[in-house]
Amino acid sequence: MTQNTPKSAITNPSLDDFITAETNLQGVAKQTPLLESYYLSEVMGSEVLLKAENLQRTGAYKLRGAYNLMSKLSKAERKAGVVAASAGNHAQGVALAAGLLKIKAAIFMPIGASLPKVQATKGYGAEVVLVGANFAECLKAAQEFSNKSNAIFIPPFDHMDVVIGQGTVGLEILRQVPDVDNIVVAIGGGGLAAGVATYAKLYAKANGKKIKVYGVQSEHAAAYPPSLRSGKPIEIQTTPTIADGIAVSKPGKVPFELIKKNIDKVVTVSENEIAKAILVILERAKQVVEPAGAVGVAAILAGKLKLKGKTVVILSGGNMDPLLLQRVVRHGLAAAERYTTISVMLPDRPGQLALTAEVIAKANANVVEVLHTRHGLGLKISEVELNLSVETSGHEHTLEVVKALKAAGLKPRIIEARED
Question: What is the pLDDT of residues 91-108, one digit of tens each?
Fold first, then answer.
């Protein structure tokens, strides 16, 4: 945190603080809908609803915290302008808030940031500076800029006013579903999770209820489990993850203390589990959700959260680069064994490719790509190898295709899915 980060007058948030923040956000952030998910309810064995923050202005919840903090800046602070660091969602939240408040904004983003997110941030009127390969490098550059220019640094999560602004998501959930038993929320630096969990626990205490809040992180950027075990924020070495929106190497001090008190459990999910969740949300809920926003659903699908009662899962963002979406959908199909590569060894004579295609077609599968080679290692002079990318309805259907190929006298081998 820089010397130009505004201080919060709030140290221990109350229910009234969240209500004040919601009033402050009227006409800025909108109340997002709750969507019933019959599919996830079947998986869980109890009712599951989705809080669609992917439909929020800027495509994510980040506007709530950014505007709540920036609206409290003094005239002098507003005149100095603001600066932020972000891979995308915080950037857009700060940029839009700055535009609404008529404040000049500079946003530092990683060089590899999603083009749609960069363009959207510029579209809200902010100056975008591309620097560094990750969030940590952007953050350092933004803080240095703040110290040199006196621009006010707007933290993405480590500030009480930001946390309370994000916590209005929890306020909305409890208004929409007063009898909720569980809330599942993604965790990166912790601003959203801290705000939602703090409000939920304060509400539960005031109303004599029990509400459990569960956090979910990518296993490639899971700083909270070791931090919670040690009782203090621990910095970890993150590895590349599709969930770049929650790829934070160290918890924020402010959200960590609130999460330590109010989150019941934190679990992690893999890249495959996230990709499968995005596919399920797309197909079953008809919602486009970015990887970071899908981790809660991933935890349910993977059986890492087996909850009783009524559960709300927060879809925290929907800013998905179309090119990444294309890759993730394909990866999700492969992870769900609906997109499989099958290698088939064939005698090098006419008609074998047509025979193979006919067998697959009769098994009601679809060939989407074919690689035909005579030069692979281990091939006899009289053999060719076919690598067939095949769409199926899942594991059992894939095995039926393999069985049909074997029955036709062919030698199939699954490359991208298990065979047992």
Answer: 999 999 999 999 999 999
- The closest of 62, 63, 77, 83 to 6, measured between CA atoms, is 77
Q: Residues 369, 388: contact at Cβ < 8 Å?
A: yes
The predicted structure's pLDDT at residue 90: 95
Name the active-site residue from 146, 227, 316, 389.
316
| Coil, helix or strand at residue 213 | strand
Q: What is the pLDDT of residue 304?
A: 97
DSSP H or E segment with residue 225: helix 224-230
63-153 shares the fold of 15-61+159-333: yes
Active-site option among 51, 62, 201, 250: 62
CATH of span 337-414: 3.30.70.260
The C-alpha atoms of residue 55 and residue 349 are separated, in whole angstroms, by 56
Parts of the chain with a pLDDT under 50: 418-420
In the chain, domain spans: 15-61+159-333, 63-153, 337-414
The SS3 call for residue 293 is: helix
The separation between CA 398 and the C-alpha centre of its own chain, rounded to angstroms, equals: 29
- Give 379: exposed, middle or buried? Use CB within 10 Å, 0-12, 13-18, 19+: middle
Q: Which CATH number fits domain 15-61+159-333: 3.40.50.2000, 3.30.420.40, 3.40.50.1100, 3.40.50.880?
A: 3.40.50.1100
CATH assignment of 63-153, given 3.40.605.10, 3.30.390.50, 3.30.70.3550, 3.40.50.1100?
Answer: 3.40.50.1100
Q: Residue 416 has what pLDDT?
A: 58
C-alpha angle 145-292-417 in degrees, rounded to nearest 5: 135
Q: Where are the beta strands (DSSP E) in 58-113?
A: 82-85, 105-109
Calpha distance 271→328 (Å, rounded)? 10
How confident is the model at residue 1, as a pLDDT?
52
Q: What is the pLDDT of residue 171?
A: 98
Catalytic residue status for 62: yes
- Residues 245-281 have pLDDT tens digits of 899 999 999 999 999 999 999 999 999 999 999 999 9
